[in-house]
Amino acid sequence: MRRPLETQLEHQDRLADRKDCPVWLVLMILFSCGQNNYGELCLGHCNSTSKLEHVPFFSAKGIRDIAGGNEVLAVVMNDGAIFTCGLNKSGQCGNGTFEERVIIATPVRALSGITINMVAAANG
Length: 124
Prior knowledge:
- The protein is mainly β.
- The protein has one domain (9-111).
- It has one helix spanning 12-16; strands at residues 23-26, 29-34, 49-54, 63-69, 72-77, 82-87, 101-107.
- A hairpin with a 2-residue loop joins β4 (63-69) and β5 (72-77).
């Protein structure tokens, strides 16, 4: 999903209007917007937003890859660690629990020590 149309923050309203890409990586800073029923925007809450919001958790870390699925977000860091947030009723965040909502980026500990290069997410 790393394909922002603009790299200037003053264009955030136009970027937020796009329906096909709810997560934006702009100047290596992660922003997200849209439906957030299960915390899938990694903002620390479950409120939906129509404006791009900065995701502060990832600011000091280098992001290698991002994938958004249906109500889940996965982020691979430059060091190969992977973090997820969002719907987790069936364990889809990979954090070892079935807690329904994961609202902050949580490491996938089962993959610690393994360098992840890419991530994919899907609906279902």
